[in-house]
Write a structure and sequence with these properties.
The protein has 261 residues and is mainly α. The protein has nine helices and no strands.
Length: 261
């Protein structure tokens, strides 16, 4: 009897997961259709870029600086033990650009942006504002979803570049705590250590990070059930699903980079 109940529970859970995955795939697939169809909500797109990009700069800047500073301070004793302290700027830059800054920045955006989109669209769904837009002959998907997904797809890579820069400056501060290195010499060593493979593949995957952060946040909010409780649930599940998607995309990107480059 207990085994049968466990099997039934597992079956229901798997059915829910596959159902949700299928609906999310159709929801995201609609984006690629709507993006090319007029009208184009340029004004709303610009507003979302401002809210998603500019409003996130202080948080990304603080996080990026701390990442660079802490990474430098933690790594310096190990490299100094091997007499390779001069390799510290290149190591910090490579670590930040290839992996740490893109993933950490994307996770911050998942927590801040995906939850915000999920809660905003969820509250609009619960208060029937989305239904009112449909009645008014306005395409709510185009106005609410497409603009947000486009904004996150564009802004997250720019935020990652900003985090890379601030993180490298944080590394410079960390190095000068124990030694005296000029800014010119520091950035010369950073640039000498970078190659094509260190910049382009990490940059490409940040566009996927941004797309899935916006798409998952929009899906969870746009399809929220009735009731105020569903708003909090939409925000919470948006963060969890977006964060998980970031790790999955990063794992795939690392494997593809290792395979082709």
């Amino acid at each position: 009897m207990i085994l049968k109940n466990n099997i039934d529970s597992l079956s229901v859970t798997l059915k829910t997961i596959f159902n949700d995955t299928g609906n999310a795939t159709l929801f995201m697939g609609r984006f690629f259709k709507e993006i090319f169809m007029p009208p184009f909500e340029i004004k709303e797109f610009k507003r979302q870029c401002f809210l998603i990009g500019y409003k996130s700069l202080p948080l990304v800047a603080i996080t990026g600086f701390i990442m660079g500073l802490v990474l430098t301070l933690q790594t310096r004793p190990t490299l100094a033990g091997f007499g390779a302290e001069s390799r510290l700027p290149g190591m910090v830059a490579l670590s930040l650009i290839r992996e740490i800054a893109p993933v950490i920045t994307a996770l911050i955006c998942a927590g801040k942006i995906a939850s915000g989109i999920g809660a905003e669209l969820g509250s609009m769904k619960v208060t029937e504002q989305i239904d009112a837009m449909e009645v008014s002959a306005i395409n709510p998907y185009k106005y609410l979803v497409v603009t947000r997904i486009l904004a996150t797809t564009l802004m997250v890579p720019l935020l990652v570049v900003f985090a890379d820069t601030i993180g490298i400056l944080g590394g410079y501060v960390g190095i000068n705590i124990h030694s005296d290195v000029t800014l010119f010499r520091y950035f010369s060593q950073v640039l000498e250590s970078l190659d094509f493979i260190d910049i382009i593949p990490p940059a490409i995957k940040t566009f996927f990070f941004g797309f899935f952060i916006g798409a998952i946040g929009s899906y969870k909010g746009y399809t929220a059930a009735n009731g105020t409780e569903s708003v909090g649930k939409a925000a919470n599940t948006a963060v969890v699903a977006a964060s998980l998607s970031i790790f999955i995309i990063d794992m795939i990107a690392v494997q593809l980079t290792d395979l082709f480059f």
